[in-house]
Amino acid sequence: MSKKILVILAHDDMKISRVNKRFIKELESCENVEIRDLKALYPDYKINIEAEQEAIRNANKVVFQFPMFWFNAPSILKEWMDKVYSLGFAFDVTKDGYQRRELDGREFMLAVSMGGHEAAYDGEYKSVDECLTPYIYTAKFCGMRVVEPFYTYRAMQNLSDEKLEELAPQYKDAILK
């Protein structure tokens, strides 16, 4: 039985996307992958909590895919997390403290594209992992096993078509791993 993978795609405008659009195309033929494009599903930000929780229940691995904006994810992903990772689903509070629930044991992965060069996240600025700490920490808090991320740099600058075509199968391999 193959691993069931849920890709939560958070992009403000996939029509103008180059990198995320190409990466998602790479997964479309994979029977064990469900792609949930949050902006297409919820342009009004009214998340169908039950549908999203059911999608998670059916997955072994959850991938958050998005372009980084101002050192963070698009706002719809935060809205999705606030609604879907609810008390009683993601965790419970008991007399013994926090208890993990539906996310416990699932794999969690980040697939993030950045407009800038990798060097922009060294030195005086935070690293990509530091910027994305809330997503990594939330996954760990809920009992998910965080796996190696797939980061793509220079998505808006100097990423040639040839390089993008080289990265697409690497992205797919990382997601399916």
Secondary structure elements and pairings:
Blueprint: E1 5-9, H1 19-27, E2 33-37, H2 38-41, H3 49-57, E3 61-67, H4 75-84, E4 91-94, E5 97-100, E6 107-113, H5 128-131, H6 133-141, E7 145-146, E8 150-152, H7 161-176
Helix pairs in contact: 1-7
Characteristic key phrases:
177 residues, alpha/beta, Rossmann fold, 6-stranded parallel beta sheet
Can you give a write-up of this model?
By secondary structure, the chain is α/β, with parallel strands linked by helices. The protein has a single domain, classed as Rossmann fold (3-Layer(aba) Sandwich). The chain is 34% helix and 21% strand. Strands 1, 2, 3, 6, 7 and 8 form a six-stranded parallel beta sheet that branches. A two-stranded antiparallel ribbon has the order 4-5. β4 and β5 form a beta hairpin. The mean pLDDT is 92.
SSE series: EHEHHEHEEEHHEEH
Helix percentage range: 25-40%
Shape by Cα distribution: globular
Total helical segments: 7
Number of domains: 1
CATH class: Alpha Beta
- Kindly state the mean pLDDT as a whole number? 92
Q: Strand tally, please?
A: 8
Question: What are the segments in which pLDDT stays under 50 over at least 5 consecutive residues?
Answer: none
What fold name stands as the CATH topology? Rossmann fold
Radius of gyration: 16 Å
CATH homologous superfamily caption: Flavodoxin domain
CATH architecture: 3-Layer(aba) Sandwich
In angstroms, what separates the terminal alpha carbons? 14 Å
Largest sheet: 6 strands, parallel
Structural class of the helix and strand makeup? alpha/beta
Q: Quote the beta fraction.
A: 15-25%
